[in-house]
Amino acid sequence: MKNDKNHVVVGIGEILWDMLPEGRKLGGAPANFAYHVSQLGFCSRIVSAVGYDMPGDDILNILRAKSLDTDFIERIDKPTGTVEISIDGKGIPEYSIKDNVAWDNIPFTDKLARLAAKTKAVAFGSLAQRHHVSAKTINAFLDAIPEENEALKIFDINLRQDFYDRNTVERSLHKCNILKLNDEETDIISRMIGISGTIEQVVDTIRKRYSIGILILTCGTKGSYVFGHDTMSFLPTPKVKTADTVGAGDSFTAAFTASILQGKSIEEAHKAAVDVSAFVCTQYGAMPALPDTLRNIF
Fold it and tell me: Which protein family is it in (predicted)?
């Protein structure tokens, strides 16, 4: 399946400039995901939009320089997205996301429908569904993936600012078969959908209510869990010298997805995801090059 253009892994949603204290870096969770999947040897595609402006030109040029396909990044008569990011004393990012930008207006096209027919895994989040155009496109793309593909549909929830609501979250929970969220998001979702209990009880209720096969719960420095039908994997977070954590979660999702597509167990996929995301934490920005020692485990 690796490097097979008939078995594509897709990141659909935002692509933007992360305006970090040390300068701008290319980012956006679905784009980060697709980038890291490509580093791990899979045919990946980014579905998004940029503006008819210099920041949009720069994004496309950088992606091409990284040997990433840009055929599914539309040019839109809106500004290219940016996010102002400040990093606190623990290396944790805080975001200020510009509204009504190009990636809010991703069109659904015949070309996208053809891509859906070849999709074996797709990662999407809540942020790019904040406006109706991109929300409609994301959901149309998910629905266009043939059932016989048995595709992984990963809802990496990524709650940001106030750009989410219950309808969007619940619709996405019904459409995914893998859910990834952090401990803070778990608390928000629990209150939103009216469930309570221990972490294990909350996770079990979410998985059963929305028929989710795998639930990934990350808890920062306290470790991460992966819950499957008959499996629970816990791994501590490695102690590394953190540059920033921007994009670390997206690299985790990418490595986990790549591992599952290769037939690895949940435990093996979890270990690969932790190792890759720990390395990304030691680098600045969301799209560092992975060393051969990590690429080779795939």
Answer: Belongs to the carbohydrate kinase PfkB family.
pTM (whole model) above 0.90: yes
Q: Which helix (H) or strand (E) holds 8?
A: strand 8-12
Helix axis angle, 110-117 to 132-144, nearest 10°: 40
Q: Is the pLDDT of residue 29 over 80?
A: yes
pLDDT tens-digit series, residues 179-203: 999 999 999 999 999 998 888 899 9
CB atoms within 10 A of CB 196: 9
What is the token pair recorded at 152? 């992984």
- CA distances, 78 to each of 15, 57, 73, 74, 86 (Å): 13, 13, 13, 11, 25
Distance, in Å, from the CA atom of 10 to the CA atom of 12, rounded to the nearest integer, reads 6
Question: Could you tell me which residue, 290 or 298, shows the higher pLDDT?
Answer: 290
Contact 146, 8 (CB under 8 A): no
Hey, what's the torsion of the CAs at 45, 47, 51, 57, to 10 degrees? 0
- Phi then psi for 234, rounded to 5 degrees? -125, 135
Q: Mind giving me the DSSP string for 259-270?
A: HHHTT--HHHHH
- Dihedral sign of CA atoms 215, 218, 219, 225 in order: positive
Q: How many CB atoms are located within 10 Å of the residue 22 CB?
A: 10
Q: Where are the alpha helices (DSSP H) in the chain?
A: 29-39, 54-65, 110-117, 132-144, 166-175, 183-193, 199-209, 248-261, 266-281, 292-295
How far, rounded to the nearest angstrom, does the alpha carbon of residue 155 sit from its chain's CA centroid?
A: 8
